[in-house]
Amino acid sequence: MVPSSRQKEILRLVQSQGFVSNEELAHHFGVTPQTIRRDVNRLCRAGMLRRYHGGAGLPSSVENVAYRARKVLCLEEKRLIAKLVARHIPDRASLFINIGTTTEEVAKALIGHEGLRVITNNLNVAAILSENESCEVILAGGVVRPRDRGITGEATIDFIQQFKVDFGVIGISGIDSDGSLLDFDYREVRVAQAIVANSRKVFLVADHTKFGRNAMVRLGHLSQITALFTDRQPPEPLRRILIEAQKELYVVEDG
């Protein structure tokens, strides 16, 4: 495929920003959203972009979409997932919450809970839940990533391993068709693995754009979690894995 001049400009904008909505592109070029969707679909079929709900992002398996873009990507879906998760976490529970924009929405959904004890390696989560005076927030030490205020490193892993909590709430960048849980940063993955190992129940929060998405670092497998919370039914191979492993599936669209 040889991109048109407009399609080349779409590629440039997405590459510079990580994610661009269809509305932004339509306004930028002075064309209809339908025209933009056709351009984006052609670029996605050629493997040059990845189509997300409401826009387009990078298809890379070695570099994640920028944090600023992920904050708005599928935001409403993430909020609905977060509310669903919050209904399954009782007051006065202990939990880990790790790095990610979906887990940050979970923190917001938990703001009304009483007596939570939350251990996190996410400065954004700590800031959100510290607004609740009845919630004790324990912040892991380590190296702070400026791009998303996540904390990683050996000190973070050592800190996590001191606890055994009721719930571990983790996000993920991609779920392969074989059930592999994938992410981009091996340091972040090692912290998440420690969370999985030290949680009585593991809740994985992932919107539908994570199904089949590629990333180069393997965190674990769907069979290691307790429940998957998402906004749409997963593809049939993932549903089969969850059923065979006797894991729970909660889907927003199913109520």
Write the layout of secondary structure elements.
Elements lengths: L4 H13 L1 E3 H8 L3 H13 L4 E3 L2 E3 L9 H6 L2 H12 L7 E4 L3 H9 L7 E4 L2 H7 L6 E4 L3 E3 L4 E3 L1 H7 L4 E7 L2 E2 L4 E4 L2 H12 L1 E7 L11 E5 L5 E4 L5 H9 L3 E4 L4
Parallel strand pairs: 4-5, 4-9, 5-6, 9-12, 12-14, 14-15
Antiparallel strand pairs: 1-3, 2-3, 7-8, 10-11, 11-13
Short description:
This protein has helices at 5-17, 22-29, 33-45, 67-72, 75-86, 101-109, 123-129, 154-160, 186-197, 236-244; strands at 19-21, 50-52, 55-57, 94-97, 117-120, 136-139, 143-145, 150-152, 165-171, 174-175, 180-183, 199-205, 217-221, 227-230, 248-251. The protein is an alpha/beta fold and 255 residues long.
Notes on the protein architecture:
The chain is of the alpha/beta class and 255 residues long. It has 2 domains: 55 residues, Arc Repressor Mutant, subunit A (Orthogonal Bundle); 184 residues, Rossmann fold (3-Layer(aba) Sandwich), CATH 3.40.50. 38% of the residues lie in helices and 24% in strands. It has 10 helices and 15 strands. The protein has a 7-stranded parallel beta sheet with strand order 6-5-4-9-12-14-15, sandwiched between helices. The longest helix has 13 residues. It is globular, with a radius of gyration of 19 Å. It starts with a helix and ends with a strand.
